[in-house]
Automatic annotation (TrEMBL):
Function: Is responsible for the charging of tRNA(Phe) with phenylalanine in mitochondrial translation.
Location in or out of the cell: Mitochondrion matrix
Domain FDX-ACB: 346-442
Protein name from the UniProt record: phenylalanine--tRNA ligase
Length: 442
């Protein structure tokens, strides 16, 4: 079995100097993560604040709600899939979050121009390495090692807006289940997984297409439909274990580069439809490239934060990172299937400060990347930043200068912030914005 992705995470740190948020730091030759130095380049946009979260592994921390949901999901797959009394699914929940662009994109058939590759969406160490944007980044290597049924669980990193439901780090469960002909059609040996044009001795000798919304061109309709039925039954079973057997649900057709056909599962929860997961039939090119030429597979991915916040009525995603005993004690030594409703330890007021600035000539209100600004605010303000909202865009009618205004909402989860200390942090943010983006504060 390959050892490349089975090393445990270490506590990571970063050594940077004169970091620039809008572009790669020109004065920084390397980025240090743990005890390794990575060369930086024009793609480098990972920040010290983001690196400081690596190695926390909330999904493995006792008494953390993310860990409880993880255990419930693992238990479902362990109990639902067994062979001679042993679980058929293996679990990988401590894989290194630093991956190559090949793992994160190329191996999953994600096109070169796909928006998910953009620097505005991902945290790049350099042009060849990044913090994984999804646990699916490990799929091909695990398939190459000979695994057929496995769960991949860990932290993933995406640049995003700042509010109570979004954080640049969240946790995912991704899974793959593969089956050979004798497993899929154990009672109907005359049926086939692949259309007759497929040659097992030459897995790349066909051109697979996804033009048919029902199936991939290499698969028979019978194989696709049976895998679809299994996939939906298995995932619906998981949702009922988590949310109750009477939960309303619906399947929505979707597109993902690495599966076809693909769906999203939504449940009707608290008077609205909520997306739970994405899934589909794995593109056969991925399996063939990994050396699996005689199987068909399904895959799915879901976010632990979304599930935990819904199940336990947790109002703010930042609470997942809290070490406050008042929060963690509510999940301590509980039956993992117990119905738990989070009770606020106390409620602290918000402080709201606006920041307005004129953009330099090389930016416009349409080309300025808000995610760059959000990362800077988070790096300076830390975890007391509750939300950042784009409040106003303005183009001066005479000078044609472009201006943006953001509202920054500050709130500490464990004490009341004073306006004086918020103002001081706000001044630091203003200075950082001027230094890094060459803007003029209005």
């Amino acid at each position: 079995m390959t050892k490349l992705f089975l090393k445990p995470n270490r506590i990571y740190s970063i050594v940077l100097s004169k970091h620039k948020y809008s572009t790669a730091p020109k004065s920084v030759a390397t980025v240090r993560i743990g005890d390794k130095d990575y060369p930086s380049d024009e793609y480098t946009n990972v920040t010290p604040k983001i690196i400081s979260y690596l190695g926390r592994n909330l999904h493995l921390q006792r008494n953390n709600p993310l860990s409880i949901v993880r255990q419930r999901i693992v238990n479902y797959f362990y109990s639902s899939f067994t062979h001679r009394g042993n679980p058929t699914f293996s679990v990988y929940d401590n894989l290194s979050p630093i991956v190559t662009t090949k793992q994160n994109f190329d191996d999953l058939l994600i096109p070169a121009d796909h928006p998910s590759r953009a620097k505005s969406d991902c945290y790049y160490v350099n042009k060849d390495m990044l913090l994984r944007a999804h646990m699916t980044a490990h799929q091909s290597e695990l398939l190459k090692s000979g695994l057929d049924n496995f769960l991949m669980i860990g932290d993933v990193y995406r640049r995003d807006e700042i509010d109570s439901t979004h954080f640049p780090i969240f946790h995912q469960v991704d899974a793959v289940r593969s089956q050979r002909k004798d497993e899929l059609f154990h009672d109907k040996p005359d049926l086939e997984i692949f259309e007759p044009i497929f040659d097992p001795k030459n897995p790349h000798g066909f051109i697979n297409s996804i033009n048919d919304p029902m199936k991939q061109s290499c698969h028979t309709l019978e194989a696709t439909k049976l895998m679809e039925m299994q996939l939906k039954n298995h995932l619906l079973g998981l949702v009922k274990v988590l949310f109750g057997k009477d939960i309303k649900h619906r399947w929505v057709d979707e597109y993902f580069p690495f599966t076809h056909p693909s769906w999203e599962l939504e449940i009707y929860y608290e008077n609205k439809w909520m997306e739970i997961l994405g899934c589909g039939i794995v593109r056969n090119e991925i399996l063939a490239n990994a050396g699996s030429t005689n199987t068909i597979a399904y895959a799915f991915g879901l976010g632990l934060e979304r599930l935990a916040m819904a199940l336990y009525k947790i109002p703010d995603i930042r609470l997942m990172w809290s070490t406050d005993s008042g929060f963690l004690s509510q999940f301590e030594n509980k039956d993992i299937n117990a119905k738990i409703t989070y009770k606020p330890v106390s409620v602290f007021p918000q402080c709201v400060n606006d920041i307005s600035f004129w953009l330099p000539p090389n930016y416009t209100i349409d080309t300025f990347v808000s995610n760059d600004f959000y990362d800077l605010v988070r790096d300076v303000g830390g975890d007391i930043i509750e939300q950042v909202r784009l409040k106003d865009k303005f183009v001066h009618p005479k000078s044609k200068k472009h201006s943006l205004c953001y509202s920054i909402i500050y709130r500490h989860l464990e004490r009341t912030l004073t306006q004086v200390e918020v103002n001081e942090i706000h001044k630091q943010i203003e200075k950082a914005v001027v230094d890094n983006f060459n803007v003029t504060i209005r």
